[in-house]
Amino acid sequence: MEIIAGDKNSLPTISFNAKGLVEHGYDQVAPAYLSKFAPRSIPTRAAYIEKLLAKLPPGAKVLELGCGPGVPCTQTFITHGLEVTGVDISSVQIELARQHVPQATLIHADMMALSFPPASFDAVVAFYSIFHLPKEEQGMMIGRVAGWLKEGGWFLCNLHADEGDLVLDDWLSPGVRMFSSGLGVQGNRDMLREDGNGLTIVDDEIAVEKVGRVEARFHWIFAMHRGKGRCIGKRQIE
Q1: Residues 6+ apart with CB under 8 A from 166
Q2: CB neighbours of 215 closer than 8 A, spacing ≥ 6?
Q3: Which is nearest to 125 in space by CA: 38, 184, 66?
Q4: What is the average per-residue pLDDT within 224-234?
Q5: Average predicted confidence (pLDDT) for the chain
Q6: Do residues 178 and 25 make contact, with C-beta atoms less than 8 angstroms apart?
Q7: What are the pLDDT digits (tens) for 129-185?
Q8: 36 and 210 Cβ atoms separated by less than 8 Å
Q9: Left (φ > 0), alpha (ψ -120 to 50) or beta: where does 113 sit?
């Protein structure tokens, strides 16, 4: 499978600045992130992973955008006999993932710099990752995901439920800053409809999770690729 990781300096300036903050932030907090989130059970995510696993045959090819240290999600997919390609913008996270899931194909790259042949994957998952892209690029990412999926393949992700750019100070550790961006619930649905060619939303849910000392709202989307057409709600427009 051909994998191309482009030069992030070729991306728009706003993207480079925001992603530099994300990359540096995750590099800084990688050990703390591993100890805090790897053992943590997130019921909504776990339930959707179970749904996805029930639909994939052994040996199915899965792309994980934002694989982090490889646990618990990448490891879960590997344990169930799936062929996993994991991508993360943080080199430190990728090094940790190589320790935890050496069976996976692991790539250090900005997800927007990736290129795969059409219909390469049976599933694409993106947990807590696409919202680290500037909002101008999130729809582009959805369009690429749709192109990388096989017909009958599955897309599972969560996005910010609230609208706007967010920069957090002292994120998980003193002095660490983190960027994320959201389109809002309706904005997310519009994005899937406009950019998710062939995707049909099966589940669409808002979940509230405790993140550190605050509660955060995430918009979970589980969609199937049914071939050409624009995604809208639980049906597809040709």
Answers
A1: 160, 179, 180, 181, 182
A2: 208, 209
A3: 66
A4: 67
A5: 90
A6: yes
A7: 999 999 999 999 999 999 999 999 999 999 999 999 999 999 999 999 999 999 999
A8: no
A9: alpha
